[in-house]
Amino acid sequence: MRPTWRSFGPALLVAGQLLAGCVTPATGADSYHDKASTTVGAAASEVATAQLTVRLVRRDRIQKPYADETVTASETALGSIGNAFGSVQPPTGDDRLRDEVTTLVSDAEDAVAHARIAVRRGDSRDLADAARELSRSAHQLAKAQQALS
Amino acid sequence: MKKVFSIALGVLTAIGGFVDIGDMVTNSLVGARFGLSLAWVVVVGVLGICVFAEMSGRVAAVSGRATFDLVRERLGPRVGLANLLASMAVTLLTFVAEIGGVALALELATSVNYLLWIPLVAAAVWLVLWRTKFSIIENVFGLLGLALVVFAVAVWQLGPDWGMLWHDATHPTKPGTEGLPTYLYYAVALFGAAMTPYEVFFFSSGGVEERWRESDLTTMRNNVFVGFPLGGLLSLAIAATAALVLLPAGIQVDTLGQVGLPVAVALGKLGLAVALLGFFAATFGAACETGLSVGYSIAQYFGWQWGKYVRPRQAARFHLVLLLSAVIAAAVLLTTIDPIKVTEYSVVFSAVALPLTYFPILVVANDPDYMGNRVNGRLANALGTVYLVLILIVALAAIPLMIATKAGM
After folding, report:
1. Residues with pLDDT less than 50, chain B
2. Taking chain A, what is the end-to-end CA distance rounded to the nearest angstrom?
């Protein structure tokens, strides 16, 4: 039988997922822990970006549209990070880890969303509150990262 | 005096035009993750592009024809077609990334979503390619691209421990937290970003557009051997700012906005405004260069009239390719694919296509029928051969490394 493009379909799909680094099912506890660690690391990076941006806004060292877009991009990224991890099937016994990580990422997304609102408003009190919330989130993510490594 | 001005202008535009979206994103990403431990790859890549750009510029000046105009004639239609398909696919991908980069720069400046900018940017690029003189495209965007020097100023302003920076750059070691495949994957990406195939397409065809003669060889060599390395220093400055600000903060670069943050830390609003101008000029200039390169490669392969030195009516098919490329780029980006991801893939796929781009240059530059007594000397051939072997290794390793590391994750 002559191969058609259809016969390459599944192989191309797997290759595409591998190349794009898309979420694949966790094949075991180790793999799930690795995914959890990567998720927490990526979330920490987005929170750190928002922290730096808010600091620059408070010191009047960054244009408002630039700050807005940077924080908005971090918020969007956190949404994708949370969705990607949430859609992975956890191995039996790892439900608690799943809950912890999704809660951390969700809290981080909230903190960055508040930062985005504060940046757009430009109100100094809102910015100070946002900075504190981001700091808390960053601290929790750092602790989780340490525990997972 | 006119000669000095011409050389200075050529060098400055070569510096400003060297950095594109691939260089900006990859260098910042690598700096934020590996510090300056991969700086050696930029040095190796810049030397490589200098070696092959000099050859292709010499071919253009001596034969009056672009290198890839000669590939089909010299190596036959099959090799020519393989060369065309591989390098054009990568150049088109790079063109998509550059247009996305312009739109992202405009989004950062205006807060208007980049997707709304895409059709306007694609139309503006096409309009510039259709209506504007080649020398204006090259000089204006090359000079405006010098705004990226602000990254070098930012490094100085951040007051780093210069001894430590030098030590990191000259003693390349893999950070303990990273695996060797990931380190090598990013080395491949940096190499691909520095040696992007379109640069030689553009350089060689540009030489024909500007009607270089043998008397222009000195100017051409100054552009290559002074301008390109200084452009490479700009790439290193971008990596250094990321290493100094983003790495300690634990920030992984996945947006263009993050690339500029260290400049804001060092120089505030004014510095960031200059960086934004640099982002815009570098990406818009590179969009013009890659768009033209797509047109050059197709028209040269099929033997159509090409170039901006003739009226659009005389090179209608060449201009049709430019128009279609702009439409395709806009259509791809409007699928909401992330332009930064396109950029990351384009630099790695560039590495895969490198042998098909650079091997023919080495062959043509050694052919006395085209080059007369200006064929490659021993040094050019030795360097060319060493780089060809290196390029082959990099091309073979790129896809396996991409799969093994899940694209550097």
Report:
1. none
2. 50
Cα–Cα nearest to B246, from A45, A77, A39:
A45
CATH superfamily ID and name for A28-148:
Talin, central domain (1.20.1420.10)
Q: How far apart are CA B238 and CA B259, in angstroms?
A: 8
Are the beta carbons of B264 and A61 separated by less than 8 Å? yes
Q: What is the pLDDT, as a whole number, of residue B50?
A: 94
Tell me how far CA of residue A130 lies from CA of A50, A71, A141, B166, B173, in angstroms.
Answer: 10, 12, 16, 38, 38
What residue in B sits closest to A76 (Cα-Cα)? B255
Neighbour-count burial of B170, counting CB atoms closer than 10 A to its CB (0-12 exposed, 13-18 middle, 19+ buried): exposed
Which tokens in the block code for residue A98?
A: 């799943």
Residues in chain A with CB shorter than 8 Å from the CB of B264 are 56, 61-62, 66
Kindly state the percentage of chain A with pLDDT values over 90.
Answer: 70
Token pair, residue B4, equals: 């000095």
Chain A: give the shortest CA distance to residue B109, in Å: 6
> What is the pTM assigned to this prediction?
0.90
Which of B22, B24, B94, B23 has the alpha carbon at shortest distance from B333?
Answer: B94
Look up the ipTM and state it.
0.89
Task: Find the CB nearest B257 among A20, A60, A66.
Answer: A66
Domain ranges for chain B, please list them.
49-404
Chain A CB within 8 Å of residue B100 CB: no
**pLDDT tens-digit map of B328-342:** 999 999 999 999 988
- Would you list which residues of chain A are within 8 Å, Cβ to Cβ, of chain B? 15, 18-21, 38, 41-42, 44-45, 48-49, 51-53, 56, 60-66, 68-70, 73, 77
> Is some CB atom of chain A closer than 8 A to the CB atom of B113?
no
